[in-house]
Each structure stands twice: as C-alpha cells, then as structure tokens.
Amino acid sequence: MVTAVTVRSERDDGRCVHLPDERSTRVGPTRWMSAYPVRAAILDVGFGTEGMARDSGSGTTDERLEQRHVDGRGDRDDGSSGLSRRSVMKAAGAAGMASLVPFGSAGTAAATDTSVVDDAFDLSGGLQEALVVFDSAENAERLDTLSLAKGYRVFDHLAIAWTFLDPDQVKTVADWGSVRRVKRSEELEWYNDETSRTSMAVDDVRNGEELGYVGEDAHVVVIDSGIDASHPGLEGRVEANYRFVDEGVGSRDPLWVDAAPGDTDQLGHGTHCAGIVGGDGSGSVEGEYSGMAPAVTLTGYSTTRSVYLPYVVAAWNHMLGRAKADPDFSPDVVSNSYGVARDMPYNPNDPVNVASWRAFEEGILPVFAMGNDGSGTGTSSRFAKAPHVLGAAAAEKSINPRENTENRPIAGFSSRGRELPRDAPEYNRETTLENLRKFWAIQNGTTYAIPANDPRRTGMFGPGVNSSPGIGAIDEEAGAAYEILQTNGNADVVSLTLSITPDGQWVRTTVYDEDGKRVAMMGEEPPHQHRTLTFDVDGGEKYYVELEPELSASGEYTITWEQEAKPEGDLASVDPVTLFRPSLSTHGTAVMSTIDKYDALGPLGPAYGGSGTEPFYTRLSGTSMACPGAAGIGALAIEAYRANHPEGDSPDPADVIRVMESTARDFNPNYNAYNTGAGFVDAEAAVNSAEELAAGETTVADLQTGQDALVDPAEETTITALSASGSRSDDGSVFTAGQTDQMTLTVSDLSHDATEVWGVVPSAWDVRTEYGDVGRVEETDGAKRVYFGSVTAPEVTDGDTTFEYFAEAPSGTENTGTYTFGPAHARTDAGVDKPVDEFAGIDTNYVVGEDTNV
What we know:
Layout: E1 4-7, E2 17-20, E3 31-33, E4 52-54, E5 69-70, E6 73-75, E7 81-82, E8 128-134, E9 152-155, E10 160-165, H1 167-174, E11 179-184, E12 187-190, H2 194-199, H3 202-207, E13 219-224, E14 238-245, E15 255-258, H4 269-278, E16 297-302, E17 307-308, H5 309-325, E18 333-336, H6 351-361, E19 365-369, E20 390-395, H7 429-444, E21 448-450, E22 456-461, E23 481-486, E24 493-501, E25 507-512, E26 518-522, E27 531-536, E28 542-549, E29 555-565, E30 584-587, E31 591-594, E32 617-620, H8 623-644, H9 653-662, H10 673-676, H11 683-695, E33 724-730, E34 734-735, E35 740-750, E36 756-762, E37 766-767, E38 776-780, E39 783-787, H12 793-798, E40 801-808, E41 817-821, E42 824-827, E43 836-839, E44 843-847
Parallel strand pairs: 3-12, 13-16, 13-18, 14-16, 18-19, 19-20, 20-30, 34-44
Antiparallel strand pairs: 1-2, 4-9, 5-6, 6-7, 8-10, 8-11, 9-10, 12-17, 14-15, 21-29, 22-29, 23-28, 24-27, 24-29, 25-26, 25-28, 31-32, 33-35, 35-40, 36-39, 36-42, 37-40, 38-39, 41-44, 42-43
C-alpha cells in the first residue's frame, strides 16, 4: 500500500509536491509484454547514452555494483537501494515473464496526474537511482549545487537528468520550480506469418494491383532487446543497430555504438518484433513468414535483455538527437513492446511519456503494447494510455467469416482499459489529445493546436478564374481565388501554408477580416513551396484569403491552415488527458517471426504450436507481438500517404492513428471499447484511407474519430426468463440401506441473481441437515427440496459456486429399488416472466440391500 502526504512547497510555479511517506513500498518492476511460458535469465550487459555527463561528490563512476535481487530492488554494497542495471531474472514456471508483477485493479476515472515525486521512492532508504524531468536541459545544471554521490547525465533532447539521490535530495529537487517530475528508475517488462497477414488484410496491401505497398519508403525504429541484423529475413535493411555501452552516470562519456550488421540481441524478443514489423521471410522452410512491411528500413536500440528505464529513455533521446542532426535519418514509427501497469491516470511528465510526446511533436508515431495482464479491467500499460500513441491490444488468430465470438477474439492475456460509459471523455482520443496539447501549452507557456474545419483547400488561380470573396467589403480582383476560414471560438493564432504548382509563380496572398480590413499578407516576391503566414485572430470570426496572381500567372494552389489557442486555467484543471482504452487490436497469439534459436527465447516456439523445425523462425504470443504488427501497418499507411500527396508530404502521427482507428473492423460481438478500442486492424482499408486523405479526396472530418471510432456496443437483449446452468455429482450410484451419499451441486452460470437454489432428493432418503450447506428442507410432491443460500450472477461469472449436502439411503427390504435425484432449481426475484429454471439434470441411484454399516 502506498501512502502519501502533501507537502506545501515553495516552488515558484505554485505546484504542490506529493511525497510518499516513510512507509511507502515499491509497486514493482515493469515489463516486456510477451506472454512467455518461462522466464529467461538476464545476462549482464550494461550500457549508457550520449549526452552531457557531470561528476559530483565522491562516487566512483567505474563502480559496477552487483545486485542482491529482492522484490525488484537490490541492496547495494554502498548502502543504496533501488534497481540495478545488472538485475537478474531467474528461471520460473509457466506464468512467464508477463506475470512478474500483477497490473493494478480497475478503478474510476481520476483527474490528471500532476504529482512531482514518484510514489515508488523509499524516503527512509538510502541512495536511489532517479530520472529528473526538468523544464529545460539548461536547468538540469542546478544539480551541480548538490553533493551527488555519482554525478549525473543529461538527456539533452528530453531535458531529463539521470542520477542517484538520497531521500533528502529527492525532496530538495522536487521542490525546485524547474522540476516537473522525479521518477525512480525501474525495470520495465517485455510484455507472424501468412495467417496473420491475411487476417489483417496486409497481403491485399502488398499484392493488390492498385496498392502494392511494402514499406519501401518508410522507416521504423524498434526499441527492444536488440536485433540480429545478420538474420536472413532482416539482413541488409537494418540501417543502424545501436547498443548501449559504458556506465550512464559519471565522468566517462558513454555512447550508443552501432553494431550493424551484427547481432545485439541475446534474448530474441527484439529480433522477433523486428521481423513482425518488416521481415521479408528469407530463410523460412515451411511457409512465407514475412512481416507487415517487408521492405521497410529498420533501426534498432538494444536495452539489453532486461529493459531498464534509463536505457529506454536514453534510446529515445539518441533517436531524437540523431533525427535533428542527420538529414538521412527520418524515422516514421517507433515500436515499443514494453511497459508497466498501474491503474492510475497517465502522467505527462513521466520520462517515457515526455519522450514519446517529443517524438510525436517531431512527426514520429509512437506505438506501444497494451500489456499482458489479462481480462480484468484497468490493467493497461501506463505508456499505452497516452492519447498521442497507438496502443495495440492482442487478438487471437481464430478467423471465422461470420461475426461471432470465434472471429478474432481478444486474447485472454491482453490488458484492458477501464470499463466506462461509452460516451466517457476518457474514451475520446480527440478530447484527450486536445487536453494534452493544452496541458503542455500551460506548462510551457505557449499556445496549443486545435482542430481546424476543412484544414486543406485546393483550387486554381489566374486568367479565367471566376471566384468571389462573397462579401462586398473586399474588392474582387480578376483571376484571384478566395477561401473562407471559419475560426474556432477559442482560436488565437492561425498559421496558413501556401503551396503553388508550378513552383515559382508570383501570387500575392492577403488575409482580410469580415470588415474588409487587411490583417496579414505575403507575396512581395515570388513565393517558394510551403511559405507560411502566421497571424492573430479573434476566435469565432471568419477570415478571407485572397490569392491574387501577378503578371498574369496561373496555376494550382493548396492551402493548409492550423489554429492555435492560448490555454486557460492550471495544469490540474486539464482533465482528462488519459485514454483508458486500446487504439485497436492486431494478432498477438502464436505469431511466427524471426528468431535466433540460440537466443533465450529461441526454444519456445513449440509451446505456442510451432513445429520446431524452422531454423530461423519461431512462434511467440503477447501484446509484444501485436505492437510491431500495428507499427508495420502504420508504416504502410505512411508510405501510401506520401505516395499520393502532391508534394510527397508525410502525415501527422495523429492522422495515422485516426486513419487506422477509423478503418478498424468490428468482427466480434464481445468486442468493446476497453478491450479493443476501435476494433481489429484492417490494413487494406487503412492504406486506402491514407491515399484518399493525402490526395484531398477526403478530410479528417470525414473519418470516424472520437467516440465514433469505437466499436459498436453489443446489442442489448431483454431476457424474459431466468437461465441457470450447472451440474450435480455424488459418491456413486449403488447404495445399501443406511449408506450416506455426499452430493455436490455446482452453479456455473446465471442470467440473473438467484434468491434461492435447491436440489431435489427422493422423499424416502433422509437429508442430514447438520452437515454441508443445507438451509432448510421442505417435502413436496413426493420429494424433498433441499434449499441453499442465494447466488449472484457476478459470483458465478468469477467462478463456480458449489453447495454440499448429504442424504442417507432408506432401510428395509421394501425400500430397495431405483431413486431419481434432481433436477436442481434456481429462483429469481428480478421480475422476469419465468422466474424459475431447472438445471443439472436428473441422476438415478439404486438401493440394493440391507444396512451394511457396523
């Protein structure tokens, strides 16, 4: 149980610091999301990140302290507590890696989490490893004012510092106004074949006459245990394969080392996921085991066999830094099959959430596994709850042409969101994403983007164009084209981008308000592609854009416009920002993909139905497998968008999610918002939609977004009769006089709560009311009714309810013969037309002789 006290801080931003009290305990490690039947031993492979290193205090950076692994934490030789980067997972039983720590239980939706201090810190303990999220990388230098035992390192593209803090330093740092979050380091958990591709309509995308996309113009980053870049199914397409080396905190300069075309994966998890994204099937013997996008470019980041939070954050930091510095590195999607689950609201300032948001802002689509903690609600990974990421649930591979319960059902291990009313804002991505933009704008003191009505306009300008502004206040110019922009009520700024074909035509672009007053203009010189004009607006007003050609120029134009608003309120008022549902589901059971048989997971294929005869492929299950499937299909949609956009532009990551959710399929009557979100992925429909969006044939407004994206709720049926089912068992069927028969009545299903349940015993038999679960006995119609207590429908949904009772066979020769027991009955007071139902059938017992009891 984690308890917390609120400390009224003197931070300059006025936020309170919530500190766990000295009784606090860790909630547990987080996890890779594969439902493995065994736990693999974690080898010692330590590594660090590029960034700015600082030494402080007396700590020695060469130290590599062994961990005595106790409940996810270690007691270090230096007295510090906290997760070691060299932690060891020992072999375990069938529950597997996905059962290391149970996810939290369901709860009610809560307000936005803006707490500064992670409740996992032990404020009565020793030195603990931490990630400190600052408002800017420069402000991390304030750590120099502390006597840090081991120095610190700044992930400069994320404004996050990696360090070790004692309890007093945790409190001190949390009280700085420039600090947004102090997170304790922890381990995370790792949470494909022709059948999968056919079911998800991937083969139609790759082989269709009008489509033919294979991911050739797309780039996916896989943050995982590594990639075997020498695998025949991946060889030649892993452009970089990074491995973390050296210690992360201290004076030495740790680096990401590119090991391509080598093997950085000793677990096999990352290689399997990379193959699902983009393996081409080479080396397969019994089938074509290619991934979703077999021509995609891949980049790998190995966090070693354990997935340690600082390494994960370091990978995001390196990826973002390289994307800014290297013009040839332009990732589209990042696949993340790891996570941690607690049923709590999403905190935007947690380190991984900061990293995925920065990537989203840079045009990179983050995809996360939902988790493997099963069918209970409120079990999803905290990273997959972010409204700016695509969260992938896992569906089984049973395919039925009819829409029934056997058609692509959600896997039992796949984590669920919270069960909320269908119209809950926590199910609406548009609402939560806009709130998240507002959250960041308030925190950063900036404006935030808001949806624009019809954000892309196309048309012609030049001689012969007969366009009109539609109001007399603006003089109509010959050959000019006009567009009307209707701003939202809360809009403060509009950014308008103009593209012209052919390039170089001279067009003066002027923006007027409804009174004909000029508010902005560009075009004093020939424009180049993607000239942007930004101007202030009054929310709710119309603005008129005039495109006037000079020197009788003519051509086509495309205008895209975005609106921004100045946020109001404080961080705590921005609610909700948590998306308590998956985005969609993809196949996640028995998925065949790339593996090195000598890796730790290599031998596991037969456990998932594999033959074991494939030298380079095996089957694994988990949302770890669903995540890269969604990432690969996202890459296909991005490739299709670029191929059909007039300027070859890339889609916004939010639009990729919208396209995939809008086109997902509602295959199964047991689908709902919290287990599958928008439904089961349809790659062909998503790619077609991306093409139409890029070509201007449709707009975002035409897509099913928000609550409209969710699967339809199951049809409600009115049950007019009680329905009960169960069974009856006893000691045997042949008895002598006076022998006792022990009977068990099992109730396994009820349509309504049962106010009473009873079994039927022949009247000649003596019911022993002093034993078992008998409430009372009534004689009626030549039989005895043995009444038990009430049973609720939820009770039997969670597990069978049983009642025991005992009856003694009758004495006397005249009482030998055949006796019928049952059926059992249940009664409800629910007001249905038929309140009583019988179940468990009848059973015949025989009394064959005199009493043989001594």
